[in-house]
Amino acid sequence: MRDNVFFDSNLWVYLYSDTNKCSIVIDLSNKHFDNIVISTQVLGECFNVLTRKKIKTSELAQEIIEDIASASDVAGIDKQSVIKAIKIHTSYKYSYYDSLIIASALENNGAILYTEDMHNQQVIEGSLKIVNPFVS
């Protein structure tokens, strides 16, 4: 069984933006390239942010999403994911949408979830570690 790695949508956005965080995300993606899994939710969130904040045109954002999806395993969201997310929300007090990302990571053998929006170093259900890669 692989120890998969999940990136929250903010990391994907930084990867395709002109920010000082881009190089950190590049290093992480190179390090974990074979084990990166992305949820359909994160793909949608990434497209939304890239276009809403006018970081990329809709056409370029679509190409980016297609590239990410073709280079990574993609985890779909089903009713089991939704129910698990609600339980995570209740237990850990994350928003529903953050809980859905966590549920997807847990259901797909995630060992690490990289994000800057959740509790750094927290371990969920004894198996998924949340890591903020921008904290030194």
Overview of this protein structure:
The chain is built from six helices and six strands. The radius of gyration is 14 Å and the shape is globular. It has a six-stranded mixed sheet, sandwiched between helices. It has helices spanning 9-15, 22-31, 40-52, 58-71, 79-92, 96-107; strands spanning 4-7, 36-39, 73-75, 110-114, 123-124, 128-131. The model has no long low-confidence stretch (mean pLDDT 95). With 136 residues, it is α/β, with parallel strands linked by helices. It has a single domain (4-131), classed as 5'-nuclease (Rossmann fold).
Strand order of the largest sheet: 3-2-1-4-6-5
Mean pLDDT: 95
| End-to-end gap | 30 Å
Q: How many helices in DSSP terms?
A: 6
Principal-axes geometry comes out as globular
How large is the share of residues in beta strands? Answer: 15-25%
Major sheet details: 6 strands, mixed
